Give the backbone structure.
Amino acid sequence: GAAMVARALWVLLAALRAGWCLLPQSGYLHPDEFFQAPEVMAGDILNLKVYYPWEFLSSSPCRTVVFPLMTSGLTYWVLKSLQQLDICSSCINSYTLLVSPRLLFTIFSFILDYSVYRLASFWGADPWKALVLLAGSYVTLVFYTRTFTNTLEGLLLALLMVLVSSRKSSGHSAEPTSSSLIGVITTAGFFNRPTFLAFALMPLLYWAGLIVDSQKSIKTLINHFLKFILCACFTAFVFITADTFYFTSVSLDDLYSTNKSSLIDVIVQLHDKMVVTPFNFLSYNLNPHNLALHGSHPRVTHFTLNGVMLFGILHILAIGAGFKMLKKYVHQLMLVRWCYRGPPGLLVHSEGSPTLLLFYFVPLAFLSLFSHQEPRFLIPLILPLVLFSASPNRAVKWKLLIVLFNLLGALLFGCLHQGGLIPCLFHLEQLIHSPASSSHPRHYTLLFAHTYMPPRSLLNIKKTDVHVEVIDMAGAGEETLCQTVEQRASNSTCSDCHIFIIIPGTVRATITKCGVSFKNETLIFPHLSMEDPPQISVLSNGNWRSQLGLYILELNR
């Protein structure tokens, strides 16, 4: 009966994941969900006016283009093809530009569910309990349906864990599976985000231990590692070649046409222009000054804050179990009586599953070495954590707290957090492309202040369109903001200009000090800005809707 309830609950949560993606979710988690794939691909494939982040400029290539092309690029190519074939005349709009890449990631997110189901019995966890914990987590519902490189990192880790956790059909001893696939996934993960090596370290050591333990012949042992290295090198070659062609804007025709180059000459020329994005990424991020530009945090932020923010009580219980495990092994060391069972070393399937705790805490410790620590960096750890938490009699008494925590997280990050910006862009896209605007071209100036960086692609403006100007003022002060607004308001050279100021309700009063008036204002609710949070005293006086809203103010010129 309990298993049937768990299955039904998982089906409902899976439907919620897909349905909420299509709704769509209005919460805006971080600019990287747009500017590390969809924004770039919208500019390259759909020829839309976008903002290219510095990582994708040819002068500083730090992100591989392979995964953006395979995900957002693929969905945008499908939309473009449908429109060109007249199958869908208005396929490309703000809704499809937002939802189509997210939908692909949502489909991919079920790789996590498959992995949990496959791995549960191997690691001594209840499969359906683990699946419900996974599907009910707001991390899965919100983060794993967004276009983050961290999402892909989590999916690749899940596949890697499936590959290294296989058994012989007899079920007694472990058999290392395809070394080739493990090499491909490890390298692909490294090119997606070099931090993948921190997540892959323990699974790879576990896999290496299984190989050494199960192989009697040194020849077979070498064969496994050779397959791994060769496939890793080939995968790296594919990524480097694709990135080199993309960032250096060269084509094979260009290379061959230069003095009728031979294949050797082409290879030499490619080597000279070679782009290795992970090394550029590491070179940038290992510089403390560069990390400080993105924000510096105490080294314990992941352990004490981010882990709790993402996983709640599960993270706290894992810390408690980790200390117990540590105490146990220290005690054994002091008494000089080690007891090995199962795989070698600490990687044993004993009570509390120490291996899963190592899979969880070792990457967390490595990521804590860097001063820039954001919660989303830890989302790949959800897989070892739910497997650990779904072991018998663990986390059962915390059911209500787990449910309330994930409801709150889903509401905060899926709906409220910067939640007015995406609907605002939908509204502005409809306004810009309205029949009145099409028949009589107007000039639009969209000034965003105290919001996250707006993804220009959602406005659906072609690169050749000069009638729309987007100005991102970020967190500009009152003086700078007023100066820009007054300058635009007094511009007499444009007879049919429409100037819109987009600003959160919490800083709405700033604009009133600028000495300008507005002929229209639209309030989009809800919108919570953690950079300009509402004051509790203001919320309680009946002005809460304005404080939790985003204003679109049309300037009266």
